[in-house]
Amino acid sequence: MKKILTLLIVLASVFTLVACGGDDPTDPTDPTDPVNNGERIDFGDIFVPSSKIRVWMDDENGEYMAAVIEEFNKVYPNIIVEFQHMGSVDARELLKTFGPSGNGADVFQFPHDQLAQAVLEDLVLPLPSALQDSLEGRSAPLGLEIATLSYDETNNSFDPTSANAVESLYAVPISLESIGLFYNKDLVTTPATTMEQIIAEALVWNAEPMSESDARTRAEAGLFYLGTSSHFADSYFMQPFYSAFDFTPFGPTLDDPSAVGFADTVAALTWIRDELKPITTGNANHNSVSGGTNFENGDIPYVIAGPWNHEAYTAAGLNYGVAPMPTINVNGVDKPMNTYAGAQLAAVYKYSNNTEDASKFVEFLTTDIAMELMYEYKTKLPALENSLLSTIAGVSTDDNLLQMADQLLTSVPMPTIPQVTYYWGPGETMIIDVWNNGVDPATAAADAETSYRARVDLANQ
In this predicted model, what pLDDT tens digit does every residue of 365-409 receive, in sequence order? Predict the structure, then answer.
């Protein structure tokens, strides 16, 4: 309102000056004109419309987003971007509260496993098909697969065969992530390629004394050869082990809520109990060893970790590398360990008052300059085709991120159907029962199936 009032006063003053000039107004280009000192008054810029969008991104110190907004405004100078730091796991829930009042975000970031729930909650605007087409051949296929859903809004169904199902891109993938085999280069010359090699080496390492003055074995001191930066009942981290035994939840395409498939984990659970547990925690519980801390301190050779650990390991001055997950020999065949592929996504709030400009910002996040800034400030792996990673400054010489990109070539997209919410709890309890409590794998798997179905039924009531 103040801007409009000021503009009206300026215009009124101009007309007053013209009127006071009599029948012989001064020439605005006349260098002797005392009013404008020879400068032509141009009101063109005053009438250029501007708009505002609010962006929620996970950037606590704001440096990354400040750089992105600066570059965005070089392309769209009349779009004002108001940035607010928002943790990616919190954004969706808070948007449900603040969005309807107009105090939410026009653009928000969230992790891949929240996508289907966000669609069900009517929070996400399907992006223009032209944007989807432009990302084909540019964005990493796994990222696009994760961000694309078939949805029947009438029946709230993600079944592609549902009568009114429409396949849409609901977000843009901005970074990809998975787990890998991190190794200490001061303790490992060439990383292992098979779990059988790791197990054999672990048996020797774990049994060795700490030092001449400390007679405890490394295992007794809690310094097991292989650790995890999470814990051994985390189904996200355990999926590579499951995959070697041909298990993925929700069927081969990971989208059938009626086929969670816990019964198919029995062979993997048996191997985990008999082969993995002894070399990682001995006879102790699934979470009894701080593998991530031990690795960060330089005390163990291997840890299963993800790109979110790079910052801490680098800050610790650790001389480390990342290798692909090893194979597991199953019935005489070396089977690959396929990790989950995850993504950080950016989407447009469905009820934004400015979806057009919000879509421009989301699209800008997929550009080379935005990807370069994300790598520079966040050390994230850009969600691009592998062949295009070399165009992003710094990535082509970052061996650890390139190894992660190679791991993603054999990864499977993490399930995004809403029912995945009810998978994690029973999955964790299942492993705990086998690992800690001596429950038979078949019994634990059957109990997990029952628990999952009870949760889904309860949610549907």
Answer: 999 999 999 999 998 999 999 899 988 989 988 988 888 899 998
What backbone torsions phi and psi does residue 139 show, to the nearest 5 degrees?
A: -75, 150
Residue 306 · residue 400 · CB < 8 Å: no
Q: Cα(213)–Cα(350) distance, rounded to whole angstroms?
A: 65
CB 268 within 8 A of CB 444: no
Residue 364 identity: F
> In angstroms, rounded to a whole number, what is the distance separating the alpha carbons of residues 407 and 395?
15
- Interval 399-427 mean pLDDT: 90
Closest CA to 347 of 44, 58, 109: 109
Amino acid at 380: K
Residues 6 or more apart whose Cβ sits within 8 Å of residue 312: 296
Residue 387 is encoded by which pair of tokens?
Answer: 């062949």
The pLDDT, as a whole number, for residue 345 is 96
- Angle between helix 441-460 and helix 424-435 axes, rounded to 10 deg: 160
**What's the token pair of residue 37?**
């000192």
What are the strands, taking DSSP E only, across 135-230? 148-151, 166-169, 172-177, 180-184, 226-228
In this predicted structure, the answer to whether residue 179 has a pLDDT above a threshold of 50 is yes
As a whole number of angstroms, the distance between CA 14 and CA 11 comes to: 5
